[in-house]
Amino acid sequence: MYTNYLTKTDFILGRSCPTKLYYLKKQYPTNLAENPYFEYLKEGGHIIGKIAQLLYPDGVYIGTEHGLESGIRRTEAEIQKESCTLFEAVFEHNGYLVVADIVRKIGKTIELIEVKSTLYDSSNENEILGKKGGINSKWREYIEDIAYQTFVARLSFPYFNVSPYLLLPDKSKRTDVDKLASYFTVKEKNGSLSVEFLGERDLRLKDAIVRSHFLTKVDVGAYCEMIMDLIRKEAKSLLSTIRPRLSKAAPHLTKECKKCEFRTEGKKSGFSECWGELAEISPHIFDLYHGGSLKEKGRFVLDDLISQGRVSLYDIPERHIKGKRGERQRIQIENTKSGTEWIDPELRESLSALEYPLYFIDFETSASAVPYHKGMHPYETSAFQYSCHEIQYPGSDPRHSEWINVEEEFPSFEFAASLRETVGDRGSMLMWAPHERTTLKQISEQMERYGGDPLLKDWI
Known about the structure:
Elements: H1 8-16, H2 18-25, H3 36-54, E1 60-61, H4 68-79, E2 83-93, E3 96-106, E4 109-115, H5 137-156, E5 161-169, E6 184-189, E7 192-197, H6 203-211, E8 215-219, H7 221-239, H8 270-275, E9 295-296, E10 299-300, H9 301-307, H10 323-338, H11 347-352, E11 358-366, E12 382-391, E13 399-404, H12 412-423, E14 428-430, H13 435-450, H14 454-459
Parallel strand pairs: 1-2, 4-5, 11-14
Antiparallel strand pairs: 2-3, 3-4, 5-8, 6-7, 9-10, 11-12, 12-13
């Protein structure tokens, strides 16, 4: 934790809310580690980073393991060479600090290459730009990230041309290496993750990974220039809350606070410090189903109510509860107020129309940034487990069945075959959410691409 520096993590967090920067520097607890899917995504991102390094075999690792000053000095020494490739190069200027994923220096040009695990579609010419000419919201944070790095690198080396890039998994590319992820192992040490490539001595494997890699290097210089004035202004403002001493920016309460990572249980809750007594109101305005989408005359209703200190679920005016979603919201408000449950009057009729046997199904799938099987795209779905509870006739005891993949082969087609064996061609399949239906559709599309049993595809 570099308390007196504005790192790129600090900058991105501070851009979302300057007050959060104080909580981060003071090491307030967050709710991020409580999400296992978030941890899973982090592991995939670290493997992407290692694959990116394999594309630059001449790379020299810098890092900060031997201290920040050592990392800064080593970076400066390498940059003085005619050409070099650096991993985790360290740039610092008067409190602004970044550690860049990959740096290539050729002559008077420094390439900053930020590796991300977010899916990119190179077939879409307007992937990063939005319809109105601005930066697409999906990419905004990543462009601000690399723009801040560019800003700091230019301050550190003002006589060089600094060009920013993103290196991203590409939706239009596939891997030719089977079981690709198995050649990497993710380890945790002192609270941070590191990746080891298990095929370091296998030159044929390394060549195959590099030759058929699925990453695309995207020039984002034009996008960074679009927002560079904003980056300079925001960086200066955020640094002023760190130097000469750490101070807390005055909180600005909005509907976005619902997603605050410092909204935790216990005494040291950043959310509670910002909201004070308003944090304890129950039921809270943040409990409303899709409450953040309510608008009036182009303004968000929740923001207006919050500014007035009206944050109870019951403070929301009736006139804003309308449309199809409003029906669901009205049910929530009325039944919360009366302390009653709600049962759809059409439920009985819908249940009576079901054909027995009933199959209650639940799927487990993965969609990793690193395609596991040969021929797959990044983030392509693999279905590896299902469970099914079968009720053969009204009043009968449920019968349980399940399937899980224990092999290293692509599992989805065998998954579908086993599912058909379990549920057959009659009865009703019930699920909690659209995930199962979406998965079956994706398996059908995979059968179309890779070749699968046509009868099984028709059944799906």
